Please model this.
Amino acid sequence: MEIIGIIGFAIALLLSVMIHEFGHYLTAKKFGMKVTEFFLGFGTRIWSFTKGETEFGIKAIPAGGYCRIEGMSPRDEMPRGEESRAFFTASSTKKLIVLGAGSFAHFLIGFLLIFIIFFAIGYSALTPKIEQITPNSAASAAGFIPGDEILAINGKEVTDWSKDAQAIGQSQGRELTFLIERGTSQITIKASPRYLEEQERYILGIINEIGTKREGFFAATANSARATTTLIRESVKALFSLPTKVPELLRQTFGSDERDPEGLVGIVGAARVSGDVVGSEKLNSTERLGTFLIIVASLNIFVGLFNLLPILPLDGGHMAVAIVDEFRALLARLRGRPRPAGIDVNVLTPITLGVFGLLAVLTVILLIADIINPISLNF
Model:
């Protein structure tokens, strides 16, 4: 089962990359830019076909993908008569949309995967059905028995046990009326929750069954939006703390420190965790699939945000250049001067290579760490 999880993660990752690049492709074509290549992978071409002016295909190294938009810098030559289709001649707004489309695709993937969990797969949650009765408890004295299902509390229908059961803890010991389904009959039971010193709250003395809960379309949409927002917020925190995590990663990789589950993890580590989840005997099938999708969703959201960092060669770096270009144009207009020539990203090549080198070193360190000192989440 572990190998299925690893393969599934690899496929999900490649699909995410393809959808990211497809976001660039669709928006670039929408704005009339010339797109000549759309490839999954790098290196030697394995297979391809041409549709219109674009060659689609697969290359030998499955380490990402790319969408080649012609005219990314003023130095790039365009075919005669198609100069206006160059990327650098487009307005800043169009450039930002094309560049941001990849990250938007990642956020959309994350949202849709979470929506699938809430709407289709479901998640483990306490149900209103009673599994056990605590001896000498208020529930035992009132006559509750295992198998009873609580339909209403004080006349309020139970629709979400995690929320509706708060009436018990907030009762202050006052008598509550429960509408119970027992077999084919409905009965009413009155009980006064008792204060439990150890838990510092009022309890009834029941243990509820755990079942699979699915949301309706609108509730699933709202919950997915909230969950996606939470993942984005946590990913932002992770990005800000990334520099402080590197020394810790070095100690865990080349020293004797145990790997921190909250620390940095590479693709190999994420794939291994996915394998552990899918092969776990501690989780049921619904929990395994749901956790796997959460891992893929979290990865997409983090990658989407990382890609927006204002550093070249990331899309965010190119977006920063477009924003600076527009700011320079604004200053020129205010001074009554013509729009200045756009920034040539080729001039920034040394910075791009430096950032690329740092990312490559970090990737290698993560690869070594994921192999010799892997993260374990005890699934």
Notes: The CA atoms of residues 44 and 293 lie 32 Å apart. The chain has a mean pLDDT of 89. The beta strands are 35-51, 54-69, 123-133, 149-153, 156-157, 176-182, 185-191, 194-196, 201-203, 206-213. The chain has ten helices and ten strands.
